[in-house]
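We emphasize that the prediction below concerns an isolated chain of 113 residues; any contacts that depend on oligomerization or on bound cofactors are therefore not represented. The input was used exactly as deposited, without trimming of termini.
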Amino acid sequence: MQPYSPSGLFPSGRPPRPTYREPHPVSGAGVASGAVGALVWLALFALLGRSLAGYAWWTLLAGGLAWLAALVLVRFGDRGAAAGIAIVTAGGWSIATVAVVTRWVAGGDWPLW
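Result of the prediction step, given as a token string:
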């Protein structure tokens, strides 16, 4: 007769398996705070541009700096905030790209030079 081996469904006398935890878990509040911060950051930089070309270049610069901050946050800080920053920055870059391409198609001249 073979010895009884528990299926794991019911607790046995064995110690529990180890659980691994994320050192910096992502939370909804972190994502929202990163998104709001990036939105304000991009809006302030976008206001510096006096033309479409200025708006596009300032948005590109602000987005690059925001992504650097997000990379630092991914490594050492709140990954949720980094995700919010990355999402909003991608959206801001998309809006600037659509504006530039729309002017390019409508006018026939590349507006960034």
